Fold this sequence. Notes:
The chain is an alpha/beta fold. It has helices at 10-20, 27-36, 51-60, 65-81, 94-101, 133-147, 151-156, 169-172, 177-189, 205-214, 220-223, 233-237, 260-266, 285-292, 306-310, 314-319; strands at residues 106-107, 117-122, 158-163, 195-201, 226-230. Helix 2 crosses helix 4 (65-81) and helix 3 (51-60) packs across helix 4. It is a peripheral membrane protein.
Amino acid sequence: MTHLQAGLSPETLEKARLELNENPDTLHQDIQEVRDMVITRPDIGFLRTDDAFILRFLRARKFHHFEAFRLLAQYFEYRQQNLDMFKSFKATDPGIKQALKDGFPGGLANLDHYGRKILVLFAANWDQSRYTLVDILRAILLSLEAMIEDPELQVNGFVLIIDWSNFTFKQASKLTPNMLRLAIEGLQDSFPARFGGIHFVNQPWYIHALYTVIRPFLKEKTRKRIFLHGNNLNSLHQLIHPEILPSEFGGMLPPYDMGTWARTLLDHEYDDDSEYNVDSYNMPVKEVDKELSPKSMKRSQSVVDPTALKRMDKSEEENMQPLLALD
């Protein structure tokens, strides 16, 4: 075991070997091969190429060198293409701070039975008057940056549960194709994290409609890991044990405290709202969406017919429920 694997338990070391092809004898050579590819992309500013940083990209791509390098390049390219998103990219930024305090995202204390971190989002908590959808995405990316420092999570990954209870059609109308693709590019295509499952619960029909919009932009692996549970929490419990879930998800634990993860990131600044200026963070989402859309987004925007999609029949809905697929 090298010093780069020092943070891993014996069980996780074995998992890294079996599932990710991680070999301590060739670890430094693997990292160097990825680093040597940096010169092939002079158009990208690679701000970090240290061993520990490159290692998380290798783990995210099962030590396939070229795939790891492509993810590394996309990570920095995404940031170059969306510079405004990463200005004041810190927990105390007013928009990010407000999103964090409303539980975007939340993080459960217990890991699942695969050792994965469980992130939770309660969609209806979004206060449109205080922060934008882009701020929510920034808060999620910032949180992942902090969590991915843990080598255990680099290997074991994450699970995401999104509760759509009380999420209104008006709120859903703000989830434009450009905004959705911005999130997909930031999370699926440009971040070195392994997502073992994305679970939708209590989703209304118009969230099914939005799923049909984003589905073409999802990789096959991602599509297989999205589970649409609706009101059937028993199907959620088959994948995530209720013993570690809060009561909102039919679990055995108390209701989730939305400020749990925010307090971790903000510490003593959690209750300090002196920086908040509602005027500067009340820009219409449509304008932010237009301004921050990646230049590489060349697909035409899809138009959803709510009337037609509302008629989605039960069999079609069931076809959207994928089977569990794990690496």
